[in-house]
Amino acid sequence: xxxxxxxxxxxxxxxxxxxxxxxxxxxxxxxxxxxxxxxxxxxxxxxxxxxxxxxxxxxxxxxxxxxxxxxxxxxxxxxxxxxxxxxxxxxxxxxxxxxxxxxxxxxxxxxxxxxxxxxxxxxxxxxxxxxxxxxxxxxxxxxxxxxxxxxxxxxxxxxxxxxxxxxxxxxxxxxxxxxxxxxxxxxxxxxxxxxxxxxxxxxxxxxxxxxxxxxxxxxxxxxxxxxxxxxxxxxxxxxxxxxxxxxxxxxxxxxxxxxxxxxxxxxxxxxxxxxxxxxxxxxxxxxxxxxxxxxxxxxxxxxxxxxxxxxxxxxxxxxxxxxxxxxxxx
Length: 330
Ligand code: AMP
Ligand code: MG
Description:
The chain contains nine helices and eleven strands. Helix 2 runs antiparallel to helix 4 and helix 2 crosses helix 9. The site of adenosine monophosphate (AMP) has 18 residues, from strand 6, strand 10, strand 11 and helix 9.
C-alpha cells in the first residue's frame, strides 16, 4: 500500500465535499461504476434476480460487531435503518431462488474505527443469497464473483486503473482456504494470541491479510463470534458453516458469508442464546414457521472492493461524501 492517499480523517471534514472534483477521485468513481456493472453482469448471467433492498424496518441485523443501529421515528413506532438486509434476503431467496440487492447500510461504528481505514458509517454491500446452496457453494460463488469483477473492471475502466497506477496480483481460483483454528494458530505463532470463539480483532485481521498475496478464505468460525443466523454444523456442535473472504496486502475483510439457520426451533434457540428478544422478530419467525428452504449467501462491501482494486489508503477515498465514525460531514 504505497499510495499516500487523501488526508486522514481529521482533515476529512475540510476536504470531503470537494474531493468528488479531484481528478483522481473521478477515476476512482469510474472504476467503482465499472465494478458495479461487472458484478451485475456476472450475477444476472448466473440467473440471479436483482431486487430493491428494504432500508427501514422493525428489526435489522444485530450481528454487526460493536456497531450501533440508527433509529428513526416511524409515526410513533421505532424503526431501524438497515445495518444489513440479511433477514430480508433469506426470505426473498425462499421465494425467488437466486437473488441480490445493492443494499445501502448504516452502522454507527465505534469511534476507533475512524482510524482503521476500513470502516464507513454509510456503505453499500452487494447482498447475495441462493436457495439450496451450501456454504461451500457460496465460497465458490464468492471467488467467481471477485474474479469476474476484478477482471471485468479492466475491460471497462482500464485507462483509469492505469492512471491510478494499481496492478493486482493475478491469483486465480480457487482461493486459499484456512479454517478459523488455523488462522488463530498463525496469529499465535506470531505472538498474537486471541481467545477462541471471538471475532478476529481489526489489527489481527490486518496482520493476517498482510501475509497473503491473493484473496483467501477463513471458514468455520465458532459459535459466539457470529450472528444467530449462521448455521451450526449439525455434526460439529459449536462450529458454524460460515466464512470470510479477506483481501491480501493488509486490506482485510472483503466478504462475510454463511449457510443459514432455517428451522424455526433452532433459530429461536440461537436468538435466545445471543440475548435477542424473539418477539422483535415476529415477521421473520412467522415465515420460518411456514417453512423455508436452506440457503447460503454473502455480502461484499462495494467501497472496500473499490479500495482494494484501486489500492487506496482508506475506504473513505472510495466513496463520494463518505461518513466516518465521529466526523460530521456533508
Ligand atoms: P458484515 O455483515 O459485517 O460481515 O459486512 C459484510 C461486508 O460489508 C463486509 O465484509 C464488508 O465488505 C462490508 N462492510 C461491513 N462493515 C463495513 C463498514 N463499516 N464500512 C465499509 N464496509 C463495510
Ligand atoms: Mg463480516
